[in-house]
Design a protein that fits this description.
The chain is about 5% helix and about 45% strand. With about 625 residues, the chain is mainly beta. The chain has a 47-stranded mixed beta sheet that branches. Strands 49-48-51-54 form a 4-stranded antiparallel beta sheet. It has a two-stranded antiparallel sheet with strand order 37-38.
């Protein structure tokens, strides 16, 4: 499994470098027309009916940080000093009581702790309605049978990592529970109440028994360099986890980070606003029972880095109700879905790079992409949900099955399946953005309906005849944007005749090899498309605002272009040296249409019209 994850991450890197080697801005006459499509007669004079431009998502998480969450405490005249001396503890100041190798803090205030404790405990047990601040000023605390730091009762505890200090917390591999009914404490740093970690120092937690850092209420991290090595979960906040800043490294046998309150609908969330997180998890990278929100920071996650059963969840980011990404840089290699929600997913921004052995992005209910850059270097299916809406953003994906899958049902391992019924409740809608698909299965598959009103869509579809470049069970209505797709002939499908923008489905006279250009131009030489597919192909489907009723167009294969290729699509260049294989004249909204129920071959030069002579 570790070898698999390593290869997955390498595939992400290779795909990303290839994608970054070309500019995503598309400027050819054929595609740049899409940018002004709203002003063109093709779209502006058309009444466009859409299902929706958004889908239901929960209200954004708004985390409030108090001053003591953000301001790091320093020693002053009111600070109590606790010195750890191997098997003994001394206290200078008020508010702390020593009992052998354990010290209990009984009052709110600041406590500066330094030194080493071979087998002991720092305990917090106060009824005060004010904050307890533990300043770790260079400590090495071990406990063979319980949590080295145990917060039983406090309004809130802040652990401040003093600047320039190194702090180590280590537990044993077997606990004697203080609370046998609740089996607590069960983490190397365990709090029953709110816990915040801040400061400029470092903290290493070696959790040999179970979890690393855990709070049964809210857990906030606003600073520090934190390393957690945990036998089970790395960092847990039952009610919530909020990360504002800090450098966090987690090596966990189970989940990297987890919030699991399943009783209160306003709890059980994770919010990442900043910081740098590197997570290696045996199961999920970050899991939230309700909402998971990423608005900033740098995340590098390996999920499924262990040997577990097929029923175990090993997802990169996982939310029970809603996953929203608005910013940050996210790199994920997952043995399960890269991004997953049992409800909705919304992507508003951020740079996201995924490699997955299952779905790249999976939402049970709805997936809405409003912006950002999403690259899926490896997946079974790229984007999967009951409703998929793309309003903006740059999306590049590779899949061993369907590139995009919109489905009304869930089967084993995900959505869809042979013979699944078409449902109007499930739909695909593309209103803008840039979408590149390289799929071994269907390029775009919807078991509902599909609508394209804008944007740029490039599809490298299947080479096998049991799949198609487009496979829309209802209909794919194209009202605007630019679409080019290639693939096999057996299930070839064109956009719907209900579209308002002209389209053509052209069948090749013979199978064309990968990389061989296909070029379509008007009789006066105006380029409609010049494209180099990544795989062998038998068909090309094109919808463009530059296709006009009554216009005659020539189709060439082979040759070369002086333009710049972005994802195989050439722009700003001259095409030459190809062989004309067909021509067609547009007399209806779709030329060479097919319902996708079987292949057909096109004519040679000079041909035109319906299936068999596109």
């Amino acid at each position: 499994m570790k070898k698999f994850i390593t290869l997955l991450l390498l595939s992400i890197l290779v795909f990303t470098l290839a994608a970054c080697s070309s500019d995503t801005a598309v400027s050819s006459s054929a595609v740049s027309a899409v940018q002004s499509a709203a002003a063109s007669d093709v779209v502006a004079d058309t009444a466009v009916s859409t299902q929706s431009t958004s889908a239901t998502a929960l209200e954004p998480i708004a985390v409030e940080y108090d001053n003591d969450d953000l301001e790091t405490a320093v020693n002053d005249a009111n600070t109590t000093t606790i010195n750890l001396e191997g098997n003994a503890i001394t206290v200078v100041g008020a508010g702390a009581e020593v009992n052998g190798s354990a010290v209990t803090i009984t009052a709110a205030g600041s406590y500066s702790i330094s030194g080493s404790l071979n087998d002991g405990q720092i305990r917090v047990d106060t009824a005060d309605k004010e904050t307890v601040t533990l300043i770790l000023n260079g400590v090495d605390i071990a406990n063979a049978t319980s949590a080295p730091i145990y917060i039983l009762n406090a309004d809130k505890t802040v652990i401040t990592l003093a600047d320039g200090t190194e702090n180590v917390i280590t537990d044993g591999d077997d606990y004697v529970y203080e609370d046998a009914v609740e089996e607590e404490p069960n983490a190397a740093i365990f709090s029953k109440d709110d816990l915040t970690i801040n400061g400029g120092g470092s903290l290493t937690v070696n959790a040999n028994f179970n979890n690393g850092i855990a709070s049964k209420d809210d857990l906030k991290i606003t600073g520090g360099t934190i390393i957690v090595n945990a036998a089970n979960d790395g960092i847990k906040g039952k009610d919530s986890i909020a990360v504002l800043d800090g450098t966090i490294t987690i090596n966990a046998g189970a989940d990297g980070m987890q919030s699991n309150n399943d009783v209160d609908a306003e709890k059980g969330y994770v919010s990442i606003e900043g910081g740098a997180l590197e997570i290696t998890a045996g199961l999920d990278g970050i899991q939230a029972e309700t909402q998971l929100q990423v608005s900033g920071g740098n995340l590098a996650i390996t999920a499924g880095n262990g040997i577990h059963s097929a029923t175990d969840s090993a997802k990169g980011l996982k939310a029970g109700l809603d996953l929203t990404i608005s910013g940050g840089t996210i790199l994920i290699g997952a043995a399960d879905d890269g991004l997953h929600s049992n409800g909705s997913i919304t992507i508003n921004g951020g740079d996201i790079l995924l490699g997955s052995a299952d779905d790249g992005v999976h939402a049970d209910a709805s997936l809405v992409i409003n912006g950002g850059a999403l690259t899926i270097a490896q997946s079974y299916e790229g984007l999967e949900s009951g409703i998929i809406i793309i309003n903006d953003g740059t999306i590049r994906l590779m899949s061993s099955d369907d590139g995009i899958n919109v489905s009304s049902g869930q089967g084993e391992g995900g959505f869809g399946g042979p013979g699944e019924m078409v449902s109007s409740e499930y739909y695909l809608e593309i209103n803008g953005g840039y979408l590149y698909v390289d799929a071994d299965g269907d390029g775009i598959d919807s078991n509902g309906i599909g609508t394209m009103n804008g944007g740029v869509v490039i599809v490298n579809g299947p080479v096998m005849n049991n799949n198609g470049t487009l496979d829309v069970g209802g209909s794919l209505v194209v009202n605007g944007g630019f679409l080019v797709g290639v693939g096999s002939a057996g299930m070839a499908q064109s956009p719907s005749t209900s579209s308002t923008q002209y389209s053509v489905l052209q069948m090749m006279t013979s199978t064309q090899s990968a990389g061989s250009l296909v070029h379509i131009e008007s009789e006066d030489g105006t380029e409609i498309v010049t494209f180099a597919p990544t795989k062998s192909y038998e068909t090309i489907v094109v919808s463009s605002p530059e296709l006009e009723n009554g216009g005659t167009y020539l189709v060439y294969t082979g040759g070369s272009s002086t333009g710049t290729a972005t994802d195989g699509l050439y722009t700003d260049g001259a095409y030459s040296g190809g062989t004309q294989v067909a021509s067609f004249t547009i007399s209806s909204i779709v030329t060479g249409e097919s319902g996708g129920m079987g292949g057909f071959r096109g004519s040679g030069p000079g041909g035109g019209g319906r299936p068999g002579r596109p």
